[in-house]
Design goal:
homodimer; 219 residues; alpha+beta; Arc Repressor Mutant, subunit A; SH3 type barrels; 3 domains; 6-stranded antiparallel beta sheet; 8 strands; 42% helix; binds manganese (II) ion; DNA-binding
DNA sequence: ATTATTTTTTAGGTTTGTCTAAATTTTAAT
DNA sequence: ATTAAAATTTAGACAAACCTAAAAAATAAT
């Protein structure tokens, strides 16, 4: 089946929202897409007709199996393009999301196959998020935010959930990127701030807000 | 100013048509875009309001200076992407047009600047057509079709105007590509066919139709 | 258990880009 | 110079995707 740019954006947003809460609500989706609840309801009816989601009036909705498959293929395109933009074109990773938001809608399967080959089948995008494979299979990475990780345990940064320029600026300052090794040395209960030791650098303190946005691998 | 995908497609098509005939007609544009004359008239009014073209009812229309600039930036994006698809992703050049037709509308100047850097500032696309530079400057390549080139003169293939898979198949058979050196040895007036000698290969005969679609540099 | 608040849906409109059919203008043919 | 044909424009409609305002349903508060 074929989907419009708008439909694809809705499908992808529903997918992301239902990672957190199984059943998605009209308001949360409207908020995510920066649109009006009435518009969401309109689109839901369309997607229901296309048999992409389960929808019970006033209750909520979720993608069904084929909806998830569509979503994962959009996510795949998005993350492959992000990877391309950073590793090949030299973009910083706070600039790639908006562009990938457009590129993800270019609808040639052959293009994505060849792009994936060209990039040597990357498994994670520049923000550390896993790239679904051709068949829609996505690695489930067990993660924990720095705010929750045990003290004095060596961990590796897996992803960063806030991808704003301001966040990137701060991370550069702390010498933190995807793959960086670090360890939490002290936790301060007054403001939730955390002292960390990043590879060979002197220990430093990060705010609770920053700590909550940095995720590390967890077994 | 900002243009929709549809507007961009119209602008680019007008640009291409007015390379041949200064004043473009409604029917020819409708034919080019596979749409209806009435739709063309509608769009012309919109583009006129946006001060992109000169338009006299029932007479015809042409892009003005700023319209041409917009067109050239779309052509630039299209051809850079085609170059990328062939040289980096390994597409054959009969497959890239449709994909570039979508990619050209991704609207990030920074993306195109970086793509151009990444590709090392190519000056021609895979079909031999010149790529306009950042400022909209496009090389005017003097060309002559093989059907018109003088006999026994060594020439170099500059571009191929028919980009169908069938044409590509034939050209591969003849060992002809962009940059190939060849020379017309005999011209047969019965059917307009032409005997050519391609680099080190034995002479061969190409039909008038093929000859008319292959262009060579001309001083 | 009512009442108030919030969430969601419906009703009715707007914009963009398309279409068909009819009217108008231009061009070609007699 | 008329008439016929072709090209172009106008008129009116339609689908997609959005909106606001009002109605309906679900939740929360008294
Ligand atoms: Mn998008
Ligand atoms: Mn990402
Ligand atoms: Mn296009
Ligand atoms: Mn080309």
């Amino acid at each position: 089946m074929n989907f419009s740019v708008s439909e694809e954006n809705y499908i992808k947003s529903i997918y992301h929202l239902q990672q957190q809460t199984d059943l998605v609500t009209t308001n949360s989706l409207a908020n995510e897409l920066q649109t009006r609840p009435a518009s969401v309801t309109d689109m839901l009816k369309k997607l229901q007709v296309k048999k992409i989601l389960e929808y019970e009036k006033y209750k909520g909705f979720r993608l069904n199996a084929s909806g998830k498959k569509v979503a994962l293929s959009i996510v795949r395109r998005h993350r492959l393009w992000e990877y391309f933009l950073v590793t090949k074109l030299g973009f910083e990773w706070d600039k790639v999301h908006a562009i990938a938001e457009e590129l993800e809608h270019v609808s040639s399967p052959e293009l994505i196959r060849k792009l994936d080959d060209f990039l040597n089948h990357p498994t994670a995008d520049p923000h550390g998020d896993p790239i679904p494979d051709m068949h829609g299979k996505i690695a489930v990475i067990k993660q924990l935010s720095i705010a929750d990780v045990p003290e004095n345990k060596n961990v590796v940064v897996s992803s960063v959930s806030n991808q704003s320029p301001d966040m990137l600026e701060l991370l550069k300052h702390y010498h933190i990127g995807i793959g960086t090794g670090l360890k939490v040395t002290t936790r301060f209960s007054f403001d939730g701030s955390v002292e960390i030791k990043v590879s060979k650098y002197a220990p430093c303190i990060i705010s609770e807000l920053v700590a909550k946005n940095i995720f590390v691998y967890h077994d």
